[in-house]
């Protein structure tokens, strides 16, 4: 059983991009010694999780994966809480992180189910409304919820040094460019739901549904 747990943990680590792996180590900073986390490789992180959290390593990994937007891995490896990741009859979001990275060059899928038939692409005006409410934590939202690279977010901050709203807006535009026609209100709401944001943000997104 321990061997199976280690194999699953290692598979999860290997599935993360380098940016996501570094974010995961950052999130572990409050639970593991920073001196061990900094230079740790993916197999070493697996060993640390098994040593420090016996019997809970997979549960902790599932919680961390939710925070970095890799809900697809939770479902794929049937981690604790996987049954809650995709409500019955509702298509699970696939654009909340690097899960969609492998298909960026493919044409956007055409909505074919009743649940997604009414969803439309968010407008720039709507993205600006959201940007005005995101606040100073926009970079954390970009990395943890939207799966954007920190280097790109740093560039956005440098390009818009005087306005946090414009920084947030450019971040949302970056996500929209990546998702193309899938950059809808339901998709973005699903991505942001795990974060501790102002409830008004999710309310605004809810108001965009089906417009």
UniProtKB/TrEMBL annotation:
Signal peptide: none annotated. Residues 82-120 are annotated as: Disordered. Transmembrane segments: none annotated. Residues 4-79 form the DED domain. One of its GO terms (biological process) is signal transduction. Pfam families: Death, PYRIN. Residues 146-192 form the Death domain. This is CRADD protein.
């Amino acid at each position: 059983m321990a061997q199976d747990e280690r194999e699953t943990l290692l598979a999860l680590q290997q599935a993360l991009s380098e940016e996501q792996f570094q974010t995961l180590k950052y999130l572990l900073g409050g639970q593991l010694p920073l001196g061990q986390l900094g230079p740790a490789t993916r197999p070493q992180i697996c060993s640390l999780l098994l040593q420090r959290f016996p019997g809970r390593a997979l549960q902790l990994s599932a919680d961390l994966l939710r925070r970095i937007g890799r809900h697809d891995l939770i479902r794929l490896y049937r981690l604790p809480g996987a049954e809650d990741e995709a409500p019955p009859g509702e298509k699970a979001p696939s654009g909340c992180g690097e899960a969609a990275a492998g298909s960026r060059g493919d044409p956007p899928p055409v909505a074919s189910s009743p649940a997604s038939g009414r969803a439309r692409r968010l407008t720039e005006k709507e993205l600006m409304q959201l940007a005005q409410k995101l606040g100073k934590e926009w970079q954390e939202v970009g990395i943890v919820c939207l799966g954007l690279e920190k280097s790109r977010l740093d560039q956005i901050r440098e390009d818009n040094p005087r306005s946090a709203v414009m920084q947030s807006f450019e971040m949302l535009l970056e996500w929209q460019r990546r998702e193309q026609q899938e950059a809808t209100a339901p998709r973005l709401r699903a991505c942001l739901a795990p974060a501790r944001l102002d409830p008004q943000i999710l309310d605004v997104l809810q108001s965009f549904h089906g417009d």
